[in-house]
Amino acid sequence: MQLAHGAVETPIFMPVGTQGSVKTLHPDELDLLGAQIILGNTYHLWLRPGHELIRDFGGLHGFASWDKPILTDSGGFQVWSLAKLRKITEQGVRFQNHLDGAKMLLTPELSMEIQAGLGSDIAMLFDECPPYPCEKRYAAESLGLTTRWARRCKDWVSENQPRSGDGPQRHFGIVQGSIWAELREQSARELVELDFDGYAIGGVSVGEPEEEMFRAIDHSVPFLPEDKPRYAMGLGTPPQILEMIGRGVDMFDCVMPTRVARHGQAFTLDGPIHIKNLEFERDSGPLCESADPHVARFSRAYIRHLFRAGEILALRLLSFHNLHFLLRLTALAREAIHDGNFLEFKESFTRRYTKA
Amino acid sequence: MQLAHGAVETPIFMPVGTQGSVKTLHPDELDLLGAQIILGNTYHLWLRPGHELIRDFGGLHGFASWDKPILTDSGGFQVWSLAKLRKITEQGVRFQNHLDGAKMLLTPELSMEIQAGLGSDIAMLFDECPPYPCEKRYAAESLGLTTRWARRCKDWVSENQPRSGDGPQRHFGIVQGSIWAELREQSARELVELDFDGYAIGGVSVGEPEEEMFRAIDHSVPFLPEDKPRYAMGLGTPPQILEMIGRGVDMFDCVMPTRVARHGQAFTLDGPIHIKNLEFERDSGPLCESADPHVARFSRAYIRHLFRAGEILALRLLSFHNLHFLLRLTALAREAIHDGNFLEFKESFTRRYTKA
């Protein structure tokens, strides 16, 4: 995938930099991790420090000193998950923000304008994400709104021609439709008809069982063009990511690796561990046999000590490691796909990870 | 100064790694900073994770993955400042620790044994630090105890011959005597008589006015050998450090640079700034014109945003910068001493820093 700030190989995991930094990490470490593209959250950056300020500092690339690709979400999901007193109308979403409770209105046009100010390589269209579970009628109406908003986003983009660095900003539509196959198909077809640069599957990882999540993917992917990237938003565990790569998904993002890190959890090839557990008190081994030297130079005993003592270095090392684990996983998946043995790789990884 | 884990140029500032990590930083960043020696706190590491565990991991060097010199304090000062229900006897200090309130006893011999387990290049003798202000009689009696404890430390060292890596561990005595010139002289003479590898001036930065602090230095330094390092414990601001270098001090440590960083304060050549202030909202300049590229690539506006948003990267950048500022300051002081223009350098730096 060729973007304004460079090429991105797929399948790829995108570290999340909600407020303009991937939590606990310096951009030098993102380079060390081999991160090819990171995410910024439109809702957070709009509220603080504001997209106009960021635009004046050369967009999010200049402001955060990151010169590789960036994807921004539309802000819709955060309004849904963080804001209060949310009211959806045809025009957009009215809400009170989670910082100071101020009343605000986010519309498709404003979401596009904010993302244009952030100057991301890929901007997501403003959508409505139905909760899980929801009535089919609600899902159908919501889907209609998402399509009409997609058209308004497209109109804004046609008129304003937003840029990212030296190239055009790319725009991805978001397939909704909750758990209903025919609604997913309808949503995908309507968006493809509007012709975007890529397509995401939204409304997943919102509390539904794992099988429903995979079904939502399966009900969407066949109706999306083969030659454009497909992105499953907000996912997932290491085995879920492999499962979805197998089902045709190219891009992933999730706050989980850095969030669980801050609670002491580390991915390992044998499944996740909690570093604060007593069993690691005298463990002289590295966090994981696949850990990067940046982390592997320290023993589990040392990282456990730092974590228990409340030292920030523990959060850094665990965050770095969990991102390294997922970036390595998607790199190995690319290699396996290239070598024609992806299914074998997926099964062997998952068997060990889940101790199945 | 040649130590078991390498040479240290003086005058030098030593970043403090209380619990086995210099707060927020990775050892790679300490290398980038040019840190030549760091500090570990005996009291904290004894309580958690314990010096026996650290000894089994190759001492603090192996445990924390740091192969350059380390100095450990004696634990006496932390017992004094952090522990509860402290009771001093000839034998040692009984107290309740600040973590779980357990009753503990720290003696000169145990302090030496813990520091031997930590395997530091320089171990500090166990002393009694009188409060400020205190009665002269108390200071005199306390000084007597410090000398008797120094003798017991020396005996333990002679008997046990502690090592640091491939070389012998070095031991520094601590001059006490509060604000009285004759007590400082007495303390210095008694310690020099016992013959240690270096000498520290203790009982400073305990709440006394700055002039008293400088007087304590002036009352001690003349009685310490010219050919052994002199260390002022727990100091100080950038101008204070230059002032004390001028008065013959070679070594400094202080938690202040990283502590104030976590509260948003950054050193600059024009004095300290508070990054959260509104004046930096749109400031595109670096934190300080002398900042290292690791920090200077970011604008003040960006660091301010990160700090206000509670992002750990802000604490990292400010901590890194403040340590860089002091390490650069002592490096420039060495250069000026070498070039014979130290007084000029000190005055010009201080004039600008204090806006005098």
UniProtKB/TrEMBL annotation, chains A, B:
Annotated spans, RNA binding: 258-262
Gene field: tgt
EC number(s) from the headed UniProt entry: 2.4.2.29
Keyword Glycosyltransferase: yes
Record function comment: Catalyzes the base-exchange of a guanine (G) residue with the queuine precursor 7-aminomethyl-7-deazaguanine (PreQ1) at position 34 (anticodon wobble position) in tRNAs with GU(N) anticodons (tRNA-Asp, -Asn, -His and -Tyr). Catalysis occurs through a double-displacement mechanism. The nucleophile active site attacks the C1' of nucleotide 34 to detach the guanine base from the RNA, forming a covalent enzyme-RNA intermediate. The proton acceptor active site deprotonates the incoming PreQ1, allowing a nucleophilic attack on the C1' of the ribose to form the product.
Protein name: Queuine tRNA-ribosyltransferase
Domain of life of the organism encoding this protein: Bacteria
Subunit structure: Homodimer. Within each dimer, one monomer is responsible for RNA recognition and catalysis, while the other monomer binds to the replacement base PreQ1.
Residue ranges annotated for the tRNA-guanine(15) transglycosylase-like domain, each copy included: 2-354
Uppermost EC category: transferase
Keywords, in A-Z order: Glycosyltransferase, Queuosine biosynthesis, Transferase, tRNA processing
InterPro entries xref list: ArchSynthase1/Queuine_TRR, TGT, TGT-like_sf, tRNA_ribo_trans-like
Pfam families: TGT
Catalysed reactions listed for this entry: 7-aminomethyl-7-carbaguanine + guanosine(34) in tRNA = 7-aminomethyl-7-carbaguanosine(34) in tRNA + guanine
UniProt key word Cytoplasm: no
Active site: D73, D253
UniProt-listed NCBIfam families: Q_tRNA_tgt, tgt_general
